[in-house]
Amino acid sequence: MPEYPEMEHYRTRLSPLLGGRKIAKATVNRAATVNEPADEFAAALAERTILFVERRGKHLLFHLDDGNRLLLHLMLGGWMAYGEEGPKPDSHFQVILTFDDGHSLYFGGLRLGYLHRISAKTALERMKELGPEPFDPRLTPEAFRKLLASKRSRLKSALTDQHFIAGIGNCYSDEICFEAKLHPASAANKLSEEQAERLYRAMHKVLSEAKEAGGYMEHPLTPDDRLTGGYNERCLVYDRPDEPCDVCGTPIRQETLGGRKMFYCPNCQREA
């Protein structure tokens, strides 16, 4: 599932492409992907202009010139492509937004994800449920420690809780814990001050590097895109069961915690 690095990468790449562009046509190939009848959704978007693209947690919000928003959550398997032609037949995509310059934004893999047209008020209400952003300047090391101290859960469960911090999921929670040399099953509220600060620094380092590398998405956004997915081969523990740890050579271990896959090095990461 796309997380902060992937969605921020999408936002950065899409903002200059879509800002000020008028939607000439919206095509809905799967009615369940949108939140109103497909014909009404398409009619409401025709001739609308996208002002800018915002990210909140794992969501993208496309701000429209009528004050409404398109709220996107890719969920598991969702992805996007942009260009004059899609990389696959149009029927493969659940929604297609075609702009007045002939380019289109294709939304694929949205079997669990969605693209909803909502009011600004509804968007604010829904986003209000999310926790702080990882790079929110108000989330200082001290504020982060206080948040951790309030969580009566395992570290991985805390990091992937969108009410706790918005934007981190399965992949980067494991990578952050590895960078911080903390076991993902450690009790979040039992970390020492030094361990909490180590986790804070690791969160910023891993997410920054992953975003700059294009995240781990496999689908290029545009035909000339050579960046998207660049972090895929740089994961140190995630989805690497039984492979040797790059630091100590110990086989990476895979377990399940709270219904989620968990990858860690049993030698480098000790439970707090």
From TrEMBL:
Signal peptide start and end residues: none
UniProt-listed PANTHER family: FORMAMIDOPYRIMIDINE-DNA GLYCOSYLASE (PTHR22993)
Subunit structure: Monomer.
Phylogenetic classification of the source organism: Bacteria, Bacillati, Bacillota, Bacilli, Bacillales
Annotated catalysed reactions: 2'-deoxyribonucleotide-(2'-deoxyribose 5'-phosphate)-2'-deoxyribonucleotide-DNA = a 3'-end 2'-deoxyribonucleotide-(2,3-dehydro-2,3-deoxyribose 5'-phosphate)-DNA + a 5'-end 5'-phospho-2'-deoxyribonucleoside-DNA + H(+); Hydrolysis of DNA containing ring-opened 7-methylguanine residues, releasing 2,6-diamino-4-hydroxy-5-(N-methyl)formamidopyrimidine
Keyword tags: DNA damage, DNA repair, DNA-binding, Glycosidase, Hydrolase, Lyase, Metal-binding, Multifunctional enzyme, Zinc, Zinc-finger
EC number per UniProt: 3.2.2.23, 4.2.99.18
Domain FPG-type: 236-270
Cofactor(s) in the UniProt record: Zn(2+)
Protein name: Formamidopyrimidine-DNA glycosylase
GO molecular function: class I DNA-(apurinic or apyrimidinic site) endonuclease activity; oxidized purine nucleobase lesion DNA N-glycosylase activity
Stated family: Belongs to the FPG family.
Residue ranges of domain Formamidopyrimidine-DNA glycosylase catalytic in the record: 2-114
